[in-house]
Amino acid sequence: MRALRSPVVAAVAVAAALTVVSGCAAKSDGKGGKGVIEVTASDSACELSADTFPAGHVRFAVQNKGAKVTEVYVYAPGDRIVTERENIGPGTRAEITAEIKPGHYEVACKPGMKGNGIRKKVTADGKGADAKRDPRLDAAVAAYRTYVQREADRTLPAAQKFADAVRAGDVEKAKETYALSRVGWERTEPVAESFGDIDPKVDVRADGLEDGQKWTGWHRLEKSLWQDKKITADDKKLAAQLMTDLKDWQKRVGTADITPTSMANGAKELLDEVATGKVTGEEERYSHTDLVDFQGNVEGAQKAYELLKPVVSKNDPELAKELDRQFKAIHTQLDDHRDKGSADGFVAYDTVGKDARKKLSDSVNALAEPLSKLAAAVAVTK
Amino acid sequence: MTEPVDERPAERSPEAEKAAPSRRKLLGWGGAGLALGAVAAGGTATAMRSGDTAPADADAAAGAAVPFHGAHQAGIATAVQDRLHFAAFDVTTDDREALISLLKEWTKAAAAMTAGDAVGDGAVGGLAEAPPDDTGEALGLPPSRLTLTFGVGPTLFAKDGKDRFGIKDRRPDALIDLPQFPGDNLDKARSGGDLCVQACADDPQVAVHAIRNLARIGFGKVAIRWSQLGFGKTSSTTPGAQTPRNMFGFKDGTENVAGDDPKSLEAHVWVPTSEAKGDAAWLAGGSYLVARRIRMHIETWDRTSLKEQEDVFGRDKAEGAPAGRTHERDAAHLPSMLPTAHVRLAHPDSNGGIRILRRGYSFTDGTDGLGRLDAGLFFLAYQRDVRHGFVPLQRKLARHDALNEYIQHVGSAVFAVPPGVRDTADWWGRALFTSA
Fold this sequence. Notes:
The structure holds 2 protein chains of 2 kinds. Chain A is α+β, with helices and mostly antiparallel strands. Chain A folds into 2 domains: 31-125, Cupredoxins -  blue copper proteins (Immunoglobulin-like), CATH 2.60.40.420; 135-379, Up-down Bundle (A middle domain of Talin 1), CATH 1.20.1420. Helix content of chain A is 49%, strand content 16%. Chain A has helices at 11-17, 24-29, 135-167, 171-178, 183-187, 189-194, 199-202, 218-228, 233-252, 260-278, 290-315, 317-335, 354-371, 374-379; strands at residues 36-41, 46-48, 52-54, 56-64, 70-76, 80-88, 93-100, 103-109, 118-125. In chain A, the strands form 2 sheets. Chain A has a 5-stranded mixed sheet, with no helix packed on it. Chain A has a 4-stranded mixed sheet with strand order 2-1-4-7, with no helix packed on it. In chain A, strand 1 (36-41) and strand 2 (46-48) form a beta hairpin. In chain A, helix 10 packs antiparallel against helix 11 (290-315) and helix 11 (290-315) runs antiparallel to helix 12 (317-335). Chain B has one domain. Chain B has 13 helices and 10 strands. In chain B, the strands form 2 sheets. In chain B, strands 5, 6, 7, 8, 9 and 10 form a 6-stranded antiparallel sheet that branches. In chain B, helix 5 packs antiparallel against helix 7. The chains are: A alpha+beta, B alpha+beta. Chain A binds chain B through residues 261, 322, 325-326, 354, 358, 362, 365-370, 372-373, 375-376, 379-380, and chain B through 90, 92, 127, 129-131, 189, 216, 219-221, 223.
């Protein structure tokens, strides 16, 4: 859960800019005309009629000549999905249209609708197209995107267990599965939060509600389970709604506009989350499962850092050393609070005393301070 | 004034001046604040000089800079500033080199901030993607006579018997763990500390800015253990000036060691070379600091009759005159006071001539949840040897002082305060961490 803050990755704006306008524009122009890129997909190839085209309103006319159902993606660097079309059956045609900014892209045909697909590099010509890119950073962004998607994919079954328990009215089972259902979300929170509409539905706390906003999501159910100690009919509906909202997140997370800088800032923000919400025990005020979130936030930040590390080690080796040291130190701190008997692996945070919380807080500061320098270390390429 | 001499008024290169806007320069740009602007125009090195006997309050009004470098640390004999932010730190690293590099970085930042400059590359104008080096809330403010005074606590030398940084043998004999005094109700979370920094300034924002930035630089190596804000000086080291009143409404500490009295400073405050021998030689020219958070029971005091209040102190409330006298600075006639009167018990004549340099501040940290002010005196005293200074004095006061009914000591710490940072190559604790 975050307080009122502008999203790191402006996914909403990006979505608007790249809105697929497949409807009327495509029809009025007919097929195969000028300015249309023919994509011939088969089970083993992905042929394009042109690998360079003017930026702007671009149409891809896809023909599936293979035997498998295919899908076609247009990726921006770092594997951000610009547009995609799934379920293109054998022998059928489909058209994809998008606003494409000047730059380098990849078109992927995915026979069988899986894997990385068969990729073709394309260029949208126009002002700004030749901005120099660092392939190491593009690779980091692509790998991070894969990580974020995987975390979302993993969250669904974990959340389903929780939702099922709620729907079955099983308070104990729901309590056991609650914290674990949140791990993937906590690891990738800044990306999830970039979709301004999902976070307030699934992760809002009582104190984050706006006037007239209905309280939904994990924390509402947390309150029912731990404070009210009962599951109401409304809670069961909320559990179903949570799954719907999480599926929406899973589906959209690949379109988030992720840059090396937003990755680095996201890592810092994850530590901010720990500093303002978890160390204080505010995030999980009823369940006291803050340490599970704490670890998730740290792991997500560490993932972003590890992926950026090849560049950071070169640009600012001292910073890399310090971050390695502090990530190690914070895990050691967390290890002091593990509990094998607990469903989520940690002791309840209300049993963590003032001195121990102070130590955790010191470790968070020790890590967050150098982490705040990560963005600059990847923004300036040496 | 026996302020440290700064023979290097132009220690910042012209390039550095250009690169980072100094706070003083920003003042000039603003065009506002003529009084402050005049100070800026007056130059940077006019603040205070060795042997300058003019009352320091003239400088206080100016908000000028107090020289950072000198034989003794500033912030001890310096005319007491209006505001305090005191911080005690735990050292969280066990890496001696990391600690040393922090102390060097701290010293650099302290020199900049006391001169009215920003830390590092400044608060603005840096990389857009990076958080600025300086936190920025002191931009546009004058140096405000900021002093940063650094000390080391007993636990830096050894903790739980462990020689943490290879300096166990360098702990001076006089850096004792303070004994438990009758009536002490010490909160561990407000006591002790491996390191301390006392930030005093005439503007609270400047003092808080200094501690905030030092804490930030220290993340990962040190962590603030506790800190205390003080808003009203309770003692003066300038006899010409009016003695300030404490939260009980009384003037106290009239017999303080004066900052412009080198003889008294040598006798009572600075550690002489003769007492800083062998492994403790690093402390020559330094001092010892005792910090006590003394909670005052404000509400019960306020219900006490004027007569009793005056009897408790042994002074008249209006003038601050000792019992039976007319003016504050009249010689105290101790037999005129009750045997339990605060002034009588604390007076040098009752203690074989013991004097300490007091530099305390009043504090009010809001209320305590029971509707009572959480207020009192944050007592700071510098002395040549704690064993012949604060300890015997407090032993006596804790047993007999009539004031005890209205106060309680709730925090306590003791530090050895190294001598001054000599020049730009020197750093806080250098003599302690390097061989002589």
